[in-house]
Amino acid sequence: MSEQYSVVRFSPTPEQTEHVNVALLFSDPRFGLVYDQKFPKLTCIAPDFDKGFLIEYLMAVVATAGARDFSLAATTVRQAGAQFQMTRARELSAPLTAELVQNLTRVHLSRAKHTHKGETSIERRRIERKLDVILNRYGGADHPWIKKHARPSDYLTEDVRAHLKDERFRISRVVSTQKQLIAIDGLDIRWESHTIERRALAISFAFDMLTRVKELVQASEQRDLYLGAVILGDSEPSSAKQDHAIDILRRYSNAVVSEHALPRELSERLRSANNMLRV
Amino acid sequence: MWPRWVGSRVVHPAEADWSRFEILVTGDELLAVPSVVHLVDRGQPVEGPEGVVYSTSPRVCTCTSGSYFVKGDSGDPGMVAAEVVGYTLARSLKIDVPEFAIARDSQATFFASKNVDGCIRDALPFVRKHLGILTKVIVLDVLLFNNDRNVGGFVAHPKRGLVALDFEKSKAVRQQHPLIQLASFQPRSIWPQGVLGTIARGAAIPGAFVREAKSLSDAQLRSATLGAAQVVPGYTWAEASELALRRRRDKLEELVREVWQ
Fold first, then answer.
1. Above 0.85 for ipTM, yes or no?
2. pLDDT tens digit string along B224-234?
3. Among 1.10.10, 3.40.1130, 2.60.40, 3.40.1350, what is the CATH number of A116-278?
4. Among all residues of chain A, which has the CA nearest to that of B160?
5. Which of B48, B65, B158 is the closest to A50 by Cβ?
């Protein structure tokens, strides 16, 4: 009988975030449980999750299963609750070697390489989810007037867009009401430094383009434009790159704020936009 | 700003954790009343382990101050009160429980607890390492007559160890006439169920903690039960719960021994 393996998937909050691959479980006891100690995919969705704790858990599950019994370990993971998922066992058609294990680890456990302007789609979705949590505090993130991952054509009239120097940008969330246009985007300062910088530049570019038509928006659409950048992550900026990225955002935004403390002006604008939407 | 009553002592405002309770002054009493949050949506069901269906149908809902695990849709105020009193007394006894609140919408009142960030919900592999916490929770279950302790009643956290959940079956609070009704239940049924009970079997009674629980004052028990009554509509038997808890506290050592046999 050929060897098998399953992919162990984990989500710290399965009701809110998707599961990501964290380990491979092989039927061959020589390999047993294999994981990348950095848990690159988990780091994308939950940078603060204690990886050592997850390893302790996974090793305990395998140990409980006794002598690395593949099917028992698989059953134990399946019974662990909604945080864990286990794919169906996949039969290997090639001989199981250390090299193959390394290859499978790279394929299943490395971070996704499909990036857009330096960020993966997982990272972008994570930011958007966080922004939705913030918007939910002010009346809901799924209102049709809240534009998601919005192009200028989603919230600006053709007349205004004709004056934009470049339309090739998107903003994570735009609250677009009759009187207000609130553009909100986020930056997670715990990312790798080059990603932080690229994202800060991308947000600043979008905000700069909008600032240049701000007066026109006010004059022709009678709408007030407000640009807010939200810094995600509990930690204070500790590196020069992080400071630099935040400085860039400050230059182009009305407010650069922590996810935990929106300034009164922005929160009042969101509240009043929500009241407008209700009316 | 007056001093805030937390647990068994009055603490300076700077020292108190203001996020956990509102304080209500009634006459000369201070009651620890849980914060109230408002439901924004009815959320989605919490998925249990394979083959397990939660009796309380917990849901993850968005509230005005973030996401909460919410339960109590059955229209049973005793269930919500049991959770509130259990969590409040756990905090008084320094047993780690999640941040909690009362959640409301236009139709109903629910018990709401925050997700424990960074936890693993399957606490089983960590229970042996934290037997001390488990035995303390069993003592609290004895006080509350909570006969539903199982491995799902804990989550594991790398720094906090085991965090206790689920006090909704606490009969001393949930039953409307506890002094009469408790007699019909076997004390031994309080012992944890399944594999958790097997693991706890070898553990000794935590004597010091039993004494600590026995020193809960009448005012603390009254604050927990009447505080719950302030925010749980329909929980009209708070004084009966208080009396039942006082009686159980007074003979706690004996009750614990009975359950431990």
1. no
2. 999 899 889 99
3. 3.40.1350
4. A53
5. B158
